[in-house]
Amino acid sequence: MFDQTDELSVKTLRMLAAQMTNKAHSGHPGISLGAAPMLYVLWTRHLNVNPDKPRWINRDRFVLSAGHATPLYFPLLYLSGFALTMADLQAFRTTDSITTGHPEVVGSVPGIEATTGPLGQGIGMSAGMAAAETHLAAQFNLADVTVMDHYTYALVSDGELMEGISHEAADFAGKQALSKLILLYDSNNIDIDGAISRETITDAQTRFRAYGWDTLMVADGNDLEAIDAAITFAKTTDKPTLIEVNTTIGFGSPDAGQKQAHGTPVSDEGLQILAANLDWDYPAWTVPAAVATRFITHVYDRGIAAYDQWVSDYEAFADKAPAKFEALNMSFNHELADVTDILPTYTVGSDQSILAVNGDVIDAISKRIPDLWGGSADLAGSTYARVSDSGLFEADNRAARNLAFGVREFAMSTIMSGIALHGGSHVFGSTFLAFADYAKNSIRLAALQQLPLIYLLSHDSIGAGQDGATHQAIEQLMQFRNVPNLTVIRPADATEAVAAWQIALESSSTPTIISEPRQVVPTLANTTTTGVRRGAYTLSPAANDKPEGIIIGTGSEVQVALAAAEQLRAAGHNVAVVSMPSFELFVAQDTAYQASVLPPNTRRRIAVEAGSTLGWERYVGLDGAIVGIDQFGTSGTDAELMIKYGITAENVVAQYLKLS
Ligand SMILES: Cc1ncc(C[n+]2csc(CCOP(=O)(O)OP(=O)(O)O)c2C)c(N)n1
């Protein structure tokens, strides 16, 4: 089945990879030279993609989880007909080129399915994609017409399997029997610092079988037939599959088999040695005509044929099930039905759990937003992150809308990203704010990938109470506010919480964190959706709109700000209270609006938030005051802890009165 042109094609990939690192004076030749055959077989014999329509909804997904293998990945995309040129390959890693050091879905080469590079996260994202595929297939495929039916593949490396995320994600995928998830494991036993035997004795196959996966072994990573047979078999089983492929890092180069092959660009001399070892006799950057044709026939044409077949199925689907057709299109366009008329409202003065608001909102909107699904890292009972009239997503209940992510915050976040990258869903996930640190790098990666995820992060301060310091977020709010392209909203009450949900749902390219207190808070007068949309607004104005001073509060501390204002007003101080649920949304307002909320010449300003003070200087100035917490908390009732740490109206008043 494989012939000399296939062998020549693999050599071409290897030579291009080596030349890219040589020209860039950086990059990763090791895995690129070693894994070229397995990706060649995958791309030319299995992967169904349409380079002219890189967003085709039923394409196979391929995640370069070992994101450093771009010198292999970009030539594959180029030769397959995606929109990049030889000049792009030659510009690898140069400033502003689309051939970035690691694959990026935003601003890099078309056809990239996930931004990778932080090792291991691609495994979680590919599991999310595979889960999304089964979920959409269950909802949309008709008895006689299939519109969603594809595989998800990923290339993974030794280092990735050492990452904890590989455990979390594989455990999830095995339990969920994500049978169309296939990992190609580049097993070269070398990482950056040397042999992995220095670090692990784990047998990956035994480990993955324990998770409920099928495992296969390809003893020789250059054996195209064996690789093909393994992938062919993996596609037939009812479990996810790990295909371990034995390779030599830096195959054919002078550094072959050694640690320096990982990230040392191939030298001029090394290129000559590689060419000699591969029996390659072409000028630099040559793609032999037969190779170019092989990619066109075996990736491009094969992909177009699959696409054309799908289009005719899709037309039949549109005829037979027009409502589903419309819903599926809406979902993939990330369009939202208007839900403003069915959102819950709350009586001013009533005490309300913001966590229960999550449940109220989800229950209200889930019928009108059928592509909304999600879950929690084992805290749905606490955060109400569930669709109450739907079941649990499982192998025999794929249309169900509740994802039991398990106690795996990092995997939850990567799986959410994978679901969003796949397309066709609005997805939420939840845990405690302090534990979102477990998922931090994935939240960062979601922001970088512009994924509109909804994170419901509760127990957002010392108000978490008796569980103590470990469960009480301190620095997390400011930490997440510091992540680019991430909106953090800390609603003051139920009204603002509903608004936060609306903003999160409407987002198309920014993830949203809704930071929520464990404790019940009163529903305040004058809190508004419009105000939340603007990030900050005057909740309680000063007399004549001429404030002597301003008290800024967020979340559960807005009530503290209001109580402090009452005391100050009684003592003759004409203060205003500003609710500031979101720094990011406020920063996005024009300066006139910002100045109307925080008049520049009103210098007596004080902020109150039960978290780190660092950063509040931006809004209160160096001459203002901040009532916050810069130490870890302790166990106690939330009411007593607020007093212990000075998050009280009395303390706000005292600090305010010290301002000149
Ligand atoms: C989370 C994370 N930690 C560390 C790194 C830096 N890093 C890049 S590749 C790598 C390990 C390389 O070993 P392996 O995964 O086996 O890849 P190979 O050397 O075979 O290319 C490390 C530590 C990273 N990219 N991501």
TrEMBL record:
- Keywords for this protein: Calcium, Magnesium, Metal-binding, Thiamine pyrophosphate, Transferase
The Transketolase-like pyrimidine-binding domain, residue ranges: 352-523
User: SMART domains, alphabetically?
Assistant: Transket_pyr (SM00861)
Names of the cofactor(s) = Mn(2+); Ca(2+); thiamine diphosphate; Co(2+)
Gene3D superfamilies noted in UniProt: 3.40.50.920, 3.40.50.970
Q: Which chemical reaction does it catalyze? A: D-sedoheptulose 7-phosphate + D-glyceraldehyde 3-phosphate = aldehydo-D-ribose 5-phosphate + D-xylulose 5-phosphate
What NCBIfam families is this protein classified in? tktlase_bact
Q: Which protein, by its recorded name, is this?
A: Transketolase
- Manner of cofactor binding, per the entry note: Binds 1 thiamine pyrophosphate per subunit. During the reaction, the substrate forms a covalent intermediate with the cofactor.
Q: Where in the chain is the site Important for catalytic activity?
A: 28, 262
Q: Quote the InterPro entries the UniProt record gives.
A: THDP-binding, Transketo_C/PFOR_II, Transketolase-like_C_2, Transketolase-like_Pyr-bd, Transketolase_bac-like, Transketolase_CS, Transketolase_fam, Transketolase_N
Q: List ligand-binding residues for substrate.
A: 28, 262, 382, 459, 467, 471, 518
Gene Ontology terms: cellular component: cytosol
Its function, per the record, reads: Catalyzes the transfer of a two-carbon ketol group from a ketose donor to an aldose acceptor, via a covalent intermediate with the cofactor thiamine pyrophosphate.
List the EC numbers from the record: 2.2.1.1
Listed binding positions for Mg(2+) are 158, 188, 190
Species annotation: Periweissella cryptocerci
Subunit note: Homodimer.
CDD domains attached to this UniProt entry = TPP_PYR_DXS_TK_like, TPP_TK
Q: Where is the active site?
A: 409
User: Which family does the entry's similarity section mention?
Assistant: Belongs to the transketolase family.
Q: Please provide, alphabetically and separated by semicolons, the GO molecular function terms listed in this UniProt record.
A: metal ion binding; transketolase activity
According to the entry, what is the taxonomic lineage of the organism? Answer: Bacteria, Bacillati, Bacillota, Bacilli, Lactobacillales
Keyword Disulfide bond among record annotations: no
